[in-house]
Amino acid sequence: MSGIAQGLQQMVGSVLGAADFSLLDSLDSGAVVLDTQHTVRHWNEWMAQVSPISPQDLLGRSLWEALPKMTTHRLRTVVEDCFSHGIPGRLTASIHGSIFPLQQASGRPLRHDVVVRRLTQGSEPLCLIQVHDITARWEAQEALHRNELRTRAELAEIEAIYRTAPIGLGLFDRDMRFLRINEALADMNGAPIDQHLGRCAWDLVPALRPVAEPLFLKVFETGEPLLGRELRGTTPRAPSLERIWTEDFYPLKAADGTVVAVGVIAREVTEQRRLEDRERLLASELHHRVKNLFVMVQALAGQTARGAVTVSDFLQIFEGRLSTLAAAQEMLVLAGETGLVALRQAVHTALAPFLGDGDRLSVDIPDAGIPSKLAADLAVALHELATNATKYGALADPGGRIALSGRVDGSGVGPGLSLEWREIGGPPVRPPDRSGFGTRLLASIVDGHDGTMAMDWLPSGVVCRLEFPLGSASAQG
């Protein structure tokens, strides 16, 4: 028995010996005294303050009659055992619920525990029921329980976010081995989560070690994060494809500031880098094409001016050349991902201004795809041939005509593209004393594509043969 309980029993014993229970009113806990008939002999001041029942309504009456709702309560059994066998008993509110109908000053229920002991007054056995206010303790325990539930929910939420985050997350111990890893990072590395735990990152992606290991060591040493570091390597899932990651390394510290682990945030940027490289390439190509375009326009203007007799003549020829050049540039844009343009489209772009001559211009070429740059240059070349034919060749004579034929061989053996421009029935022609703009333009285009050109000045008309190499994958029929 504790010293407090012994002191209480001694005090109560002296009180009972004097047949005076008033000292029980000085206690800061409840005290109820029952005789063997369970009649209330005393209901102390503390109980009077927290109970809605007046002591006058209890004294001299059976406790169970005064409080009928407690008739089936375990308290009655404990009291009977105490009288019969002298066995003390305890009832706890957390297990048995409220025992007496007690309430706080605010009107809220007062949580309490009950201790029952047998005492004697002379030869008369009595029972002391002591009531302890445990409201504060109970509320603290309830608050703790709520906090535990909230903490568990928050941890579950964090775990779910960690597991399903769209970026790679990993945690490494001081040996740089995986302590944990989320699904996104495991997928980046091309292996299940369980194949990562306890292993270093470079056990799965060997190329990471020369770059990643010094970064881990620096974070462990300095305790400072390292952000935006780019790493490259291949994974077991795609060993032939180099992958690129941007990673942040951050320290996880103990209370004393010691770095106990390093976390990693990884973002795969392989496709992003590919698009950036392509964008740079396209920008460079655009710059190159624009520069060449200005040079071409300048040359067209100069050569047209030298050959034109009047301003009207200059404008007509120059506008035709510019229109063909613009259409050729549009083909470069419309080629798309394949980089191919239909040969027939290139021919139509070049000869559209001249097709109104009906059967004077016949075209016999296959419907095949050729590289867009070759198609654009070929359109300019054919337009120049048609312009010269209009001024000096077959289209300058009402009886003249032109036959354009060609073939495409994508096998990679021999010339891939062969074209023949044949003028028939025009004015007599002879080789020029010097190369004009059209001839020089054709030669420049042919040289730019590693092709060949043959010009024959036959009495019946000019024959121009052009041949260009095509790779096996460059022509599609």
TrEMBL record:
<keyword id="KW-0547">Nucleotide-binding</keyword>
<dbReference type="InterPro" id="IPR000014">
    <property type="entry name" value="PAS"/>
</dbReference>
<keyword id="KW-0067">ATP-binding</keyword>
<feature type="domain" description="PAS">
    <location>
        <begin position="23"/>
        <end position="86"/>
    </location>
</feature>
<keyword id="KW-0808">Transferase</keyword>
<dbReference type="InterPro" id="IPR036890">
    <property type="entry name" value="HATPase_C_sf"/>
</dbReference>
<keyword id="KW-0418">Kinase</keyword>
<protein>
    <recommendedName>
        <fullName>histidine kinase</fullName>
        <ecNumber>2.7.13.3</ecNumber>
    </recommendedName>
</protein>
<dbReference type="Pfam" id="PF08448">
    <property type="entry name" value="PAS_4"/>
</dbReference>
<dbReference type="InterPro" id="IPR013656">
    <property type="entry name" value="PAS_4"/>
</dbReference>
<dbReference type="InterPro" id="IPR035965">
    <property type="entry name" value="PAS-like_dom_sf"/>
</dbReference>
<keyword id="KW-0597">Phosphoprotein</keyword>
<dbReference type="Pfam" id="PF07536">
    <property type="entry name" value="HWE_HK"/>
</dbReference>
<dbReference type="InterPro" id="IPR011102">
    <property type="entry name" value="Sig_transdc_His_kinase_HWE"/>
</dbReference>
